[in-house]
Design brief:
Layout: H1 24-49, H2 57-77, H3 82-90, H4 94-103, H5 109-115, H6 118-126, H7 130-137, H8 142-148, H9 154-162, H10 166-176, H11 183-186, E1 193-195, H12 200-208, E2 219-223, E3 229-234, H13 235-240, H14 247-250, H15 264-274, E4 278-282, E5 288-293, H16 294-311, H17 324-350, H18 353-358, H19 362-389, H20 398-428, H21 431-461, H22 470-493
Parallel strand pairs: 1-2
Antiparallel strand pairs: 2-3, 4-5
Helix pairs in contact: 1-2, 3-5, 8-10, 15-16, 17-22, 19-21, 19-22, 20-21, 21-22
Function: Acts as a magnesium transporter.
Pfam families: CBS, MgtE, MgtE_N
Family: Belongs to the SLC41A transporter family.
């Protein structure tokens, strides 16, 4: 099936059911089943290619077998939830991904494009024609269109806007006006709002006229006649109070609200701290312009976590099945930097060639000193990066944090150095070497702890991601200084 022509009628043999969510294990099994069918699909193609060119039956056989596999794939895919189909697409190479994409029921296209990672979305959109893209976006809300807009061709975005109401068009332009990483970029425009001067009975009648409530509606937002935000009315308060009660008398005025220009990570922390399901977004004039729900917050937390994990290794998000050239561009810079730092550490070690040549065992022991210092520093650095992410480090407690880490590291290092000294003594038979090993180990661990605190904090102070490349810089320092301290002490006390 051509992935550039998805607007085909669903075969009568296919029964499209309401998609169901799979748990993690079921999704893995579904992926394995799809990969098995794709393998059969590939085998059929290879077998037919080996047939003699004069065999007129070969194309017919190929078509029948391929269609059989496609029908089975369609049946399997169209029973799955869009989020699970997104997982399948992210787990396949580009060629197979596009084949599967062409078999997915077209009515799920928009939802799936919202679920997949950016690098998969770009690949899928590049395989779709204008008609497919317009059909995929026609039923999406303004906030969802804003999420897709950066990856869509400009003419498609312009065409989609023509089909929106004036209110929807204004919402789309507003959402697109906020930079990525802000509350405005993730806020939802679907919400229930009521005035403060109506009764709960009026509110209930209004809710009954709706086809359904927006997802994650745990509270109703209360506004005045000028749409200025006044408070929140929880669903529980609406249900348990007398219907004749006025909204103003039971609404909560002690609420948490968000500003559209706030960092979305700060909003995520607020949701975590106060166990929120939804929160209103208000502008400078105190007008209600949207809301943020737990669904968007979970996405923010997941994306930030993934970015931090990659950043610590100096990487950016990439398609694991992308061509090697793209992967090289992503991975090479920090690896080259790491190579330079390792070369510097080797140069420092080479300055003590005379010491090492006299006491050869030092060459085996110095790697332990460098490695322990790096590991100790990494432990501290991970704790600091996490504390920075949740806003727990300030100029007031920085000194206390540094002091605590030095004390903890010294005590751990002292205990570890006893073990290391005993190992060195048993291995070398020299008490002096054991003492030099212990002193160098404690010293390098303290250096690692100090740098583990300072590197991410300094980067954060200058507006840089504290996780990006921090481990590379820390390793450079602990390797270089570890070699210098250990071999320097050995030169002083052992020669």
């Amino acid at each position: 099936m051509n992935s550039n022509n998805k607007r085909t009628e669903t075969p009568e043999a296919i029964v499209v059911t309401i998609p169901r969510r799979l748990d993690t294990e079921d999704a893995q099994l579904a992926l394995e089943r799809i990969q098995e069918l794709l393998k059969k699909h590939e085998v059929v193609e290879n077998l037919v290619r080996r047939q003699e060119e004069g065999d007129e039956q070969a194309p017919i056989i190929e078509g029948l077998l391929k269609r059989q596999h496609e029908v089975e794939l369609e049946h399997l895919l169209n029973q799955m939830h869009p989020a699970d189909i997104a997982f399948i697409l992210e787990s396949l190479p580009s060629e197979q991904r596009r084949l599967i994409w062409g078999l997915v029921n077209a009515k799920y296209d928009g939802d799936i494009l919202l679920e997949v990672n950016d690098w998969v979305r770009e690949d899928l959109i590049s395989s779709m024609n204008r008609e497919d893209l317009l059909a995929a976006t026609e039923d999406l809300g303004a906030d969802e269109l804003a999420d897709l807009a950066p990856d869509l061709p400009a003419d498609i975005v312009a065409e989609v806007q023509k089909g929106l109401t004036n209110e929807e068009r204004a919402q789309l332009l507003e959402a697109m006006g906020y930079p990525e990483g802000t509350v405005g970029a993730i806020m939802d425009f679907e919400m229930v709002r009521v005035r403060e001067d109506v009764s709960l009975e009026v509110v209930l009648r209004y809710l009954r006229r709706l086809e359904n409530l927006p997802d994650h509606t745990d509270q109703i937002f209360v506004v005045d006649r000028q749409d200025r935000f006044q408070g929140v009315l929880s669903i529980s308060q609406l249900l348990v109070n007398d219907p004749e009660t006025v909204v103003k008398d039971v609404m909560k005025t002690d609420y948490l609200s968000l500003k559209p220009n706030e960092d979305d990570a700060e909003a995520a922390l607020a949701f975590e701290r106060y166990d929120l399901v939804s929160a209103p977004v208000i502008d400078k004039q105190n007008r209600l312009i949207g809301r943020v729900t737990i669904a968007e917050v979970v996405d923010v937390i997941r994306e930030d976590s993934q970015e931090q994990d990659l950043s610590r290794a100096g990487l950016h998000e990439e398609d694991i099945f992308a061509p090697a050239v793209k992967a090289i561009k992503n991975r090479a810079p920090w690896l080259l930097i790491n190579l330079c730092t390792a070369a510097t550490a080797s140069v420092i070690a080479s300055q003590f060639e005379g010491t090492v040549s006299h006491i050869v065992i030092l060459a085996f022991l110095m790697s332990i000193v460098a490695g322990i210092g790096g590991n100790s520093g990494n432990q501290t650095m991970i704790l600091v990066i996490r504390a920075l992410a949740v806003g727990r480090i300030t100029s007031k407690n920085f000194r206390s944090l540094l002091q605590r880490e030095c004390i903890v590291t010294f005590l751990v290092g002292f205990l570890g150095s006893i073990v290391a000294a005993g190992f060195s003594w048993a291995f070398s038979g020299s008490l002096k070497i054991a003492l030099v090993m212990a002193a160098a180990m404690v010293s390098n661990m303290l250096i690692g702890a100090v740098l583990g605190v300072l590197i991410p904090i300094v980067r954060d102070k200058f507006g840089k991601d504290p996780a990006v490349g921090s481990s590379v810089m820390l390793t450079f320092a602990t390797d270089s200084l570890g070699f210098f301290i250990f071999l320097g002490l050995a030169s002083i006390f052992l020669l």
